[in-house]
Amino acid sequence: MAEPKELVVRLEQGAELPSGNEERFAGYRVMGVPFTSGDLLAMRRFPASSLGQGYTSIWHRNPQGRWTFYSDVPPQLACSRYFGSAVGEAMAREIEIIWSSPRDFTVSIEEDSGLDWHLSLTETPATRLINAVGGVLPDALWRK
User: Fold this and answer.
1) pTM for the structure as a whole
2) Element (H, E) at 7
3) Are strands 40-49 and 25-34 parallel, antiparallel or unpaired?
4) What is the pLDDT of residues 82-135, one digit of tens each?
5) Where does residue 57 rank: exposed (0-12), middle (13-18), buried (19+ CB within 10 A)?
């Protein structure tokens, strides 16, 4: 199986939207990483979006439960549009993803937030199972 960085490079070069008329996205994500501080971070990278240009979005929930969304497109074209009153703040910022090895990358937000989030990916028995099952499911089942 290809390393995560290789999969991302392929996706970035050839992301295609699924068929349909509803809002659609093609990309990858970090579902959510909780920290001992009580903070939670999540990331979405969609090289293809039916809303317009592809985009990257970082979600931050502080220990008090307040969500801040950062995206490199206007908020009305990004993930924050789906969260309504749960969003404390939504801001357009330059976001950079840099891979330093086949399984390590950093997500950075420039300007006032100063976020530098370093991630190292590893396989677990659960992720191996999910990837195996996901790889054989027909597209129609992903939509249900």
Assistant:
1) 0.84
2) helix 4-14
3) antiparallel
4) 888 888 899 999 999 999 999 999 999 987 667 899 999 998 898 888 878 877
5) buried
